[in-house]
Amino acid sequence: MKTDIEIAQEAVLEPIVKVADRLGVGEDSLECYGKYKAKLTEEFLESIQERPDGKLILVTAINPTPAGEGKTTTSVGLGQAFGRLGKKAVVALREPSLGPCFGIKGGAAGGGYAQVVPMEDLNLHFTGDFHAVTSANNLLAALLDNHIQQGNGLQIDTRQIVWKRCEDMNDRALRNIVVGLGSKTDGFVREDHFVITVASEIMAVLCLAEDMKDLKERLSRIIVAYNYDGDPVTAGDLNAVGAMAALLKDAMKPNLIQTLEHTPALVHGGPFANIAHGCNSVRATRTALKLADYCITEAGFGADLGAEKFFDIKCRAAGLKPDAAVLVATVRALKYNGGADKADLARENLDALEKGIANLGKHIENIQQYGVPVVVTLNSFVTDTPAEVAFVREFCEARSCEFALSQVWEKGGEGGIALAEKVLETLEKKESHFRLLYEDEISLAEKIRTVAVRIYGAGSVSFSAAARRQLERLEKMGFGNLPVCMAKNQYSLSDDPKLLGRPEGFELTVREVYVSAGAGFVVALTGDVVTMPGLPKQPAAFRIDVDEKGVITGLF
């Protein structure tokens, strides 16, 4: 059996100018990065704003398990299937982070015969967007420390510095550090911290900003610290905005690549959904809607994280209204949620499937709360039995969901035609009545409770003493009308990763709350979630290599 990277390396790619031409994008509207990657120019993005929008399709999934779900694979395969049916579609995805690429997950370009390519470029440095975000983030940190060193004219309280440095790598040793050691000229000694680049507020700002003007306004609002009077100090106060925006100028432009079947793909931005808002950029999504009749996008991890944030943060901010949602599951993952051992997932086990399918049921209910029609797809494995597939089909149809089997990993677009036809039928026959989960006017604490109870299934929410103080402070500062971005483990609907299936009535613990004023949301840290992951005992980096001819192996 060929690996994903072998399949990708054997593919014959079209020049990106040819892919763009089929979308009506001329060569003059591209900034090419070699033959197979390009950014869309600002002039072109401006020129298409008055075009009508196509249909917006969100691909999401059940909670991730070691058995795998295949959300990106399904998104790519669905786009390829639309192409085979003669439909004009664009796939809009996030860029992979180097953290999971070298950590536990491996690459993030899809899989099998449903991938975006060039796969190695996408996974490893792409067009430098993540490096630009990292540089802008750390420039702000350097300017902050330099301001303190040069006399601290803003009277920054060094005990109340909230801005963290970042790096696009899993490095647990950097979570908590001390900076400024050495002589007096080496800076003020203080505790500091790192987050992974995808958790940086700069990444969220990049993905939510509409244009350069909006980007600079958002950057200026970022709170980096508080002064001795308790008032916020912003990036604007530090005169950091112009230089940060200069670093992000090219990163603001969406990237165009292709799938294995030459379906256009806009891949741009990459916030994680367990610790950030988990969606590709607003600019890329809006561009895809202008360029095609169908935009297929995805949101990270399970629907409790990615889809909730797509709806309540991204759609709220950008005025987007999704027309349908595709919910991805696998028989193997559902059996794992039902208590089956990882080593036994290939065996038919209807008892475990019956128990674990409650996880799928909850995600169906959650999406339906937003008024969006749902199509459930099973990402097919050869070990799935007819009885297991029939059980899932009946479960979905009993809940007013369309159902389709997906074989895109094995067959590419051909294996997604049944799913594409169900999506098209849903778009034609079921109208979306999209609505937000909560209104801006309710308190931050009530917004957190609403997500916890209605989306996760919690019975109550416990706020630490620090979190209660932080909520009160943020309300007084005027941030009470912002949406909330829940930072939670991805493996469970609860804040305990070991509670699989559909836990109910549990207590969700919120330990810390802070505002991302530039991004425009308030972050609530729950349970033990961390914003700088660590590497596993056997990191994926051990498998990755490059030979004398420059051929990379082991990415996935």
Question: Which helices and strands occur, and which strands form pairs?
Answer:
Blueprint: H1 4-10, H2 16-21, E1 30-32, E2 38-40, H3 42-47, E3 55-61, H4 71-84, E4 89-93, H5 98-102, E5 110-111, E6 114-117, H6 119-124, H7 129-149, E7 156-161, E8 165-167, E9 177-179, E10 190-192, E11 194-196, H8 201-208, H9 212-221, E12 223-227, E13 232-234, H10 241-248, E14 255-259, E15 264-267, H11 282-291, E16 294-298, H12 303-318, E17 324-329, H13 331-337, H14 350-369, E18 374-379, H15 386-397, E19 402-406, H16 408-411, H17 417-429, H18 444-456, E20 460-463, H19 465-476, E21 484-487, E22 507-516, E23 521-526, E24 545-546, E25 552-553
Parallel strand pairs: 3-16, 3-17, 4-15, 4-16, 8-11, 17-18, 18-19, 20-22, 21-23
Antiparallel strand pairs: 1-2, 2-14, 5-6, 6-14, 7-12, 9-10, 12-13, 14-15, 22-23, 24-25
Helix pairs in contact: 4-17, 7-8, 7-10, 9-10, 13-14, 14-15
Describe this structure in words.
The protein is of the alpha/beta class and 556 residues long. Helices cover 36% and strands 20% of the residues. It is built from 19 helices and 25 strands. The strands form six sheets. Strands 1, 2, 3, 4, 5, 6, 14, 15, 16, 17, 18 and 19 form a twelve-stranded mixed β-sheet that branches. The chain has a four-stranded mixed β-sheet with strand order 20-22-23-21. Helix 4 packs across helix 17 (417-429), helix 7 crosses helix 8 and helix 13 packs across helix 14. The mean pLDDT is 96.
